Amino acid sequence: MLLEVHDLQKSFGGVTAVAGATFSVAEGSITALIGPNGAGKTTVFNLASGFLRADRGAVTFAGERIERWRGDAIARAGLVRAFQAPRVLARMTVIENMMLAGKNQPGERLGAAWFTPRRVARREAAIRKRALELIEVIRLSSLVGALAGTLSGGQRKLLELGRALMVEPRMILLDEPMAGVAPILAEQLLEHIQELRAKRGITVLVIEHDMDVVMSISDQIIVMDEGCVIAEGRPEEIQRSERVIEAYLGRLALAGASA
Amino acid sequence: MGLFNPAFWTFVAAIAGIYAIMALGLYVQFSLAGLPNFGHVAFMAVAAYTMAILVVRYATPLLLAATAGIAASVCLAFIMGLPALRLRSDYLAIATVAGSEIIRYLALNLPDFTGGPIGSIGLLGPGDIATYNHDWQAFLDKAKGVIEPLFGRIASRDLAMAVVVWAAAFALIFIGWVLERSPWGRVLKAIREDETAAMAVGKNIVAFKMQALVLGAILGGLAGLLLAWEIGVFNPDDYQPTLTFYAYLILILGGMNRIWAIPLGSVLFSLLYTGTRFLNFYPLSLFDSGSRAFLRLFLVGLLLVAFMAFRPEGLLGNRHQLLLEK
Amino acid sequence: MLQQLAQLVVNGLITGTILALTGVGATLVFGIQRIANFAHGEYLTFGAYVGLFLNVDARQDLAVATAGAIAATALLALGLHYAVLRPLRRLGLVATSLVTVGIGLMLRDVVFMVAGPNIRQLNINQMVVFDLKLVRISPGQLAAVAMTIVIVPAVAYFLARTPIGKSMRAVADNRDLAAISGVNVDRIGTYVWLLAGGLAGVGGVMFAVVQGTFDPNLGFQVLLLIFTTVVLGGIGSAYGALAAGFILGLAMEVSTWGGFAGGLDPRFKPVLAFLALIGLLLCRPQGLFGKARVL
User: Fold this and answer.
1) Taking the mean position of all CA atoms in its chain, how far away is CA C215?
2) Both ends of chain C: CA-CA distance in Å?
3) Is A120 within 8 Å of B215 when comparing Cβ atoms?
4) pTM: predicted TM-score of the whole model, two decimal places
5) Whole-number Å distance between alpha carbons of C186 and C171
6) Which residues contact A90 (CB under 8 A, 6 or more apart)?
7) How far is C59 from chain B (nearest CA, A)?
8) Among candidates C245, C241, C280, C249, which has minimal Cα distance to C29?
């Protein structure tokens, strides 16, 4: 299990967003996190990736306990997240966005530009090369020099994905990648998500509402409702689960549910 | 002083260079790292007082005292780091101005330590006149010797000061420019643009901001030392928040996002500043020297408002790259 | 010892009133207009000098001078709002703060240029002291108390009972909710400048009479104290500012009492306030009575 979440709890004021969530994600899998609105899915992402501090509970990634880590440390450790509304750096170009995310840049150390200029230049060139390769993979090559703020919603999601790949992740958290994306780009996104696992061995945990997408690409599905995990299993099992249907439809389906 | 007195122009030049270094320190903190530090003057005060106290009371050699002064500014930056990195921008502005006022009040009211309201002259207690400037003047004499071949008759200590200061200013701006275009500068740009996104790709926001803060403190401290050496004396009233806003005006005049516009901004500002003080033609002659100070500050305020309103990108800046809105 | 404490309490309450009244205006403006107005102290200076002009030059009595100061400063605040602050709203928090710094510099130095840098005082005989056995009160403090007795209840009534006052509190507390409830947020935003300006005007006069002598640096000295009051009471909470002003005034004065291990050296009173301001911004930006907002 690459990512293990155990009894995670988080409240905001009087509102409990996550009330003891427990699940695990196997390495190399594509796992979907689904549930009705307000179930706490994005909060779980925030807690796991270090953007929120949990009130209680544990998060283990690649064997290490990371629930107290800061967001940037977790990203460097290999658990990278994308945001529901893509956070691209609008006033920087596409290539700058990508190169920013490059890992292990000696040039980011304060004195380096002065004391080790050649090493910095070499690494910059390597990062630029990788960035251009990835830009081609996500098919934004024609927009290399464009300001990220001029990209469409779907293009921004692709850019965020490319940026996440620059960080050389072991696992990516995707928050509703299909939402608000034009169908052509959505298909492309879907391909990329599948390639993540197939070509790069990256584990994927994706929040998604589009059930067709979920059922077609996931190995494993985790269902949340009202802050807890109510079901965990393979797509076929989840489809048949009464509890899941009840959570979504809000009532017990007696006769017709079981197939 | 008349318009054609060379002493006037060397003075303007020296002040402009010193203010350029002060503004550069603010540039690193504000334009690069996005930290609205309204208490920048505190770095200058802390460095100057540390240096003067060491020289006057403990006969410390100049270089050591200056280094200690800068180190004191860096310590202040670390203390500032705690609030700076957790506060939202307008809260940070208020907290930093409160901090610089605390320092000024302490300097004003601890006469045994800082000489009190009399300032540096009082560092040896009442009845003694303390000066800290002799070693620096000796250094300037040597510098004057170096520039004499170039400038001939007009070479003077004051001119040497101006040359030294501007050499330092340009060197430091160049270093800043290289840093700005390096991967380090890129991360800061990203932090200004969207801190959360920068964190999401593994950048340690706290460390980067802290580095900018420390750099700005070193530059501010250096400016404080140079100003203390140029004027020869100082007192707590020289370190009012107004000085910080001079630095902001300098940045705004030239262009808040153009590091090479800083010399332009500082020269313009210094002309305004020393011009209203020393030049005697109409309409300035309508004001006596006391009122000139108020006219000067009024113009500073007016320029701040006017540029923010009509030309926030400054004289040389680029409107599209303006990262002010937060 | 006890007498010193009693005197400090009286002084603290009187200083507190100035901070409280000015703070109410400032906190509503900060809460509604969402800016940190670095020129607010200069509004007090302006009020003090209008009062000076009316009282000394135009030989009006103090009540008339105060009324004049209130009106003039209210109009000043409104004028600056229309001329400068509203058109520049789009600039964002920091830029607007810099603009208010510029306005403050201009205002302060116009006063310097017009009225001169000399120390001035209003027409109150500062030589007399009223000895009330336990404490002594100067005529200036007495005048301030008189103003307090008139103005504080009026302001409290205005905020509690009148539609405009209630709307102001509503907008400061929750802008969107107030807008949905039918409050004309823009108009309230304009009225609040009148209120803040007027209160700054009376604050300036009170400061002048209590301190006895003053010069155009008056406002700059109180600016951070006003900020402290606003933050302590919770930005946008009028009643909070009222309470916070008194608390801060008392804390500053009483901290110098000998009974507290010799007491704080009076010269460091402002330092105490500034440290409190920084501490509050760091640890409890909602102050004593504000809501903890998610930034």
Assistant:
1) 17
2) 46
3) no
4) 0.89
5) 10
6) A147, A148, A149, B193, B194
7) 27
8) C241
Sign of the four-CA dihedral C237, C243, C245, C247: negative
Optimal mutation site among A61, A70, A89, A147, interface B, most CBs of chain B within 10 A:
A89
Please list, residue by residue across C131-165, b when 16 or more beta carbons sit within 10 angstroms of its beta carbon and e when fewer do. eeeebebbbbbbbbbebbeebeeebeebbeeeebb
C-beta atoms of C281 and B94 within 8 A: yes
Tokens of A253: 């389906």
Chains touching chain C, criterion 3+ CB pairs below 8 Å? B
β-strand partners of A233: A221
Which DSSP string corresponds to chain A? --EEEEEEEEEETTEEEEEEEEEEE-TT-EEEEE-STTSSHHHHHHHHTTSS--SEEEEEETTEE-TTS-HHHHHHHTEEE--SS----TTSBHHHHHHHT-SS-GGGSTTHHHH-HHHHHHHHHHHHHHHHHHHHHTT-GGGTTSBGGGS-HHHHHHHHHHHHHHT--SEEEEESTTTT--HHHHHHHHHHHHHHHHHH--EEEEE---HHHHHHH-SEEEEEETTEEEEEE-HHHHHH-HHHHHHHHSS---TTT--
The answer to whether B10 and B160 have CB atoms below 8 angstroms apart is no
pLDDT band at C43 (very low <50, low <70, confident <90, very high): very high
CB contacts, 8 Å: A113 with chain B: 178-179, 182-184
Pick the residue from chain B with its C-alpha nearest to A102. B201
Chain-centroid distance of CA A171 in Å reads 8
pLDDT by residue (tens digit) across C129-149? 777 777 778 888 888 888 888
**Over 60: is that where the pLDDT of C262 sits?**
yes
Say if CB C43 and CB C77 are below 8 A apart: yes
Cβ neighbours of residue A125 closer than 8 Å, sequence gap 6 or more: none
Query: What percentage of chain C has pLDDT greater than the value 70?
Result: 98
Closest residue in chain C to residue B105, using alpha carbons only: C271
Cis geometry, peptide bond prior to residue B126 (ω within 30 degrees of 0)? no
For residue B323, the 8-state DSSP code is: -
Of B184, B197, B320, which is closest to A108 when you measure between CB atoms? Answer: B184
Angle CA C188–C191–C192, to nearest 5 = 85
| B82 in contact with chain C, both atoms CB, cutoff 8 A | yes
- Give B191's contacts in chain A (Cβ within 8 Å): none
Global ipTM: 0.88
Cα angle: B253, vertex B257, B262; to 5 degrees: 50
* Inter-chain residue contact B101 with C88, CB threshold 8 Å: no
DSSP H helical ranges for chain B: 6-26, 41-58, 62-84, 89-109, 111-114, 134-151, 157-181, 183-193, 195-200, 205-231, 241-254, 262-278, 289-310
Q: How far apart are CA C280 and CA C295, in angstroms?
A: 15
Tokens of C95: 């830029």
Find the Cα–Cα–Cα–Cα dihedral B111, B116, B118, B123, rounded to 10°.
50
Residue B128's φ and ψ, nearest 5 degrees, are: -110, 145
Give me chain C's average pLDDT, please.
87
DSSP classification of residue B284: G
Strand partners, C205: none
DSSP state of C120: B
